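ESCALATION

Customer reports they have been waiting on this structure for their group meeting. Please prioritize. Original submission:
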Amino acid sequence: MNAHAQAIARFADAMPVRADGRSGVMLRFQPKRSRHALVPIEDWADLGPELSIPAVCGAGKVLRVLRAARIAAPRDPLALLGREECAARLLSRAVGTTLRVAFRRRSRLRFVAWTERGVETVSDVAEVREHEDAYLVLRRGGRFPVRFERNSVIRQRRDLETWYEVLAIERA
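Update from on-call: job pushed to the front of the queue and completed.
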């Protein structure tokens, strides 16, 4: 396994989710011992509903858990797309399996400003520069920066969302 961090974990749960036009399962792993964290590692396995790169990657995550738990996978793995309930039922048989999980910590910064026009949110922030007259919000991916005049900002806040992205799953 070639990854940033590894942990021996117990597969704890697979919760089916269908919302906002997407479907998939939230995978939860409970580390047995780790110097990184003993909090559950959660990862999203996108299952479509249509055939797409994220959906194929999500089906791959489901199949890796099933393979590590020695549970027979469906003959056609793409049949899982758009069928989060079916995937969760299959994965429920793997609950309790001890796995080696490779993961990396991910984060996303968001800038929220309360202005005279209302609440404005800027996602995927790389950096916030504070100047005497303005906040300059630099965004990831080379997108144009957003400027908030200080005299129009009533209140501002930076939100940091962190999660673990599972990179590999193997039988321990």
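Sent to customer with the following note: The radius of gyration is 20 Å.
Escalation resolved.
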